[in-house]
Amino acid sequence: MADYIRDEEEQAERLRNWWQKNGVATVVVIVLAVGSMIGWRQWQQHQSVEAGKASGLYEKMIGAMPTGAGDGDAGVVKTNAEALIDQFAGSSYAGYAHLALAKLAVQDGDLDEAASQLRLVVDKPATKELEHVARLRLVRVLIAQNELDAAGKELGRTWPEAMQGQALELKGDVAKARQQWDEARDAYASALEAMGGQGGSDRVQMKLDDLNRQS
Fold first, then answer.
1. CB-based burial label for 79 (10 Å; 0-12, 13-18, 19+)
2. DSSP 3-state assignment of 96?
């Protein structure tokens, strides 16, 4: 019994010594761990709320986009696009907002504004996909502005396989605008091959047929 009590006293003494050396640090670690866990959960909740807010603004923007048939509401598009750009700068949502504003500008005939909006995405894209989409649209605007050298420079970049057909089609458009008929035919033919009969191939075929009729 005495040995048992002595063992208990020795253990208690070791515990007191350990606590004096490490107790405060242990409490700090525990507090920090709990605080970090609470902070992480709060951050996750905040991110969830923000994502829902951005998604709501995006849906309103897209839902109000005019399609050219007299529907839509450009004012609602602009309001929600500007909110996305202001509140979620640098995100994909902001990038799509710039694309939406560029589309409105094209519909209004303001090509300078459209190019400006598209360059904001091209220069600082949230994703590579957004960069490529914005660059293709920028090329179309540049061609419409007869800025053929600038358009050609943009097309000279590397394109993902999924967008090769569109890029080649635009190369054909640039060559056609320069009245370089053979180069345009070659580009359209290459675009058709890259598209493989998928979306846009009918349009490219019409362009190629028009060129062939001219010769």
1. middle
2. helix
pTM to 2 decimal places: 0.76
**Residue written as tokens 């097309």?**
155
DSSP conformation class of 125: -
Query: Is the pLDDT confidence value at 4 over 50?
Result: no
The amino acid that residue 91 corresponds to is: S
Residue 180: C-alpha distances to residues 19, 67, 171, 188 (Å): 86, 33, 11, 12
Tokens coding 136: 């293709």
Print burial letters for 53-65: b (CB count within 10 Å at least 16), e (below 16): ebeebbebbeebb
- Taking only the tens place, the pLDDT of each residue in 103-150 is 999 999 999 999 999 999 999 999 999 999 999 999 999 999 999 999
